[in-house]
Write a structure and sequence with these properties.
- This protein has 327 residues and is of the alpha/beta class.
- It has two domains: 35-178, Rossmann fold; 187-326, Rossmann fold (3-Layer(aba) Sandwich), CATH 3.40.50.1980.
- 40% of the residues lie in helices and 19% in strands.
- It has helices at 2-22, 70-78, 118-124, 133-146, 167-176, 180-202, 228-236, 275-283, 285-288, 291-294, 304-308, 312-326, and strands at residues 39-41, 46-51, 54-59, 65-68, 85-88, 109-112, 128-132, 149-152, 208-214, 219-221, 240-241, 251-253, 265-270, 298-301.
- Strand 7, helix 4 and strand 8 form a beta-alpha-beta unit.
Length: 327
């Protein structure tokens, strides 16, 4: 009887040890993300990610991540991870963004962020889907049925004067791959690039810059802050806003207002359907009287700068383009 009781106690002890060995070990978040978007690693092959829609449990080792944002594509490539599926931009022909295209060859496209192709996403069988808050408004419930869906990218207007908010989603995605330190290194590299160029811009006698967008039927001017590309130009690089540059949000500029653009440099972003308006504007004597036009310091680009400003790869490319612009 005593031997039997001893045997049972030994079995019970072994059972408790097995349970303890199988228990979860939770670590504190190490990805530097905001409280809304931190990542907790667990021993049993999963991690719990906090995001704008709550929490999601995803594999600790992610093999197939589908992303529905140009920024998230940039973030993944920054840390050496290739997406399993990406969104397209309809206004650019429904294909990869040109500045990332070389690194995305062979990656399936899954519709736009506003209208994701659910069948294409199902075919990929993703471990996790990462989307912006605007996509979540219409598609979250459908996507969540396919795979755990992480919602990042809160409205940029909520970040106010935070000049580093573009890094938050990068750090969150990096945390999901246990690559936060690598992400921080990439962010530091871009900042060093910006600091070096800023030192050169500070030496210029004339450094007023206007960031303009030519639309199909009108001209717009971007603000001094708000969007991460604006922050890069006016904060990180030290260009000076013009007299007509708004503080917070872009504004329309009538033809008559063009004469008020006292810019030494102009970045001219042109929509694909805006060639007629661009031609009329360039013919105008008001445009020809803009200081940057007379000095041949107009740098014509496209809407890719709006996408590039959100990611480390894109910001680095903008910095290199500006180096050429100010020479």
């Amino acid at each position: 009887m005593i031997r039997q009781r001893t045997f049972h106690m030994i079995l019970l002890s072994l059972f408790v040890l097995v349970l303890a060995a199988c228990g979860k070990i939770t670590t504190e978040p190490t990805n530097g993300a905001s409280p809304k978007q931190d990542t907790t690693l667990e021993e049993k092959g999963t991690q719990t990610v906090k995001h704008l829609k709550g929490t999601s449990v995803v594999p600790q080792k992610i093999e197939r991540m589908v992303v529905l944002s140009a920024a998230y594509i940039d973030h993944m490539l920054t840390i050496g991870e290739k997406p399993a599926g990406v969104n397209v931009e309809v206004r650019y022909g429904g294909d990869y963004l040109p500045y990332l295209a070389d690194q995305l060859q062979g990656v399936p496209t899954v519709g736009s962020a506003d209208n994701p192709n659910l069948e294409a996403i199902v075919q990929i069988d993703p471990d996790v889907i990462v989307i912006e808050s605007r996509t979540a408004e219409n598609a979250y419930d459908q996507l969540e049925k396919i795979a755990p869906t992480i919602v990042l990218g809160d409205d940029w207007m909520n970040y106010k004067d935070d000049t580093t908010y573009w890094t938050q989603d990068l750090l969150t995605i990096a945390g999901m791959y246990n690559k936060v330190e690598l992400a921080k290194e990439k962010i530091a590299d871009v900042q060093e690039q910006a600091d070096q160029l800023k030192a050169k811009i500070e030496q210029l006698d004339q450094k007023k810059l206007a960031y303009l967008r030519v639309r199909e039927k009108n001209l717009q001017i971007y603000a001094a802050k708000g969007h991460p590309t604006n922050i890069l130009l006016y904060h990180d690089l030290g260009f000076v806003p013009t007299a007509v540059t708004p503080a917070e949000q872009r504004e329309d500029l009538s033809m008559e207002k063009i004469s008020d653009i006292d810019a030494d440099f102009v970045v001219l972003e042109v929509d694909p359907n805006a060639q007629d308006y661009l031609g009329k504007m360039k013919e105008s004597s008001l445009w020809k009287n803009v200081p940057a036009v007379g000095a041949n310091r107009v740098y014509q680009t496209d809407s890719f700068w709006l996408f590039k400003g959100w990611g480390a790869i894109g910001r680095s490319e903008i910095i290199n383009e500006i180096k050429d612009m100010i020479q």
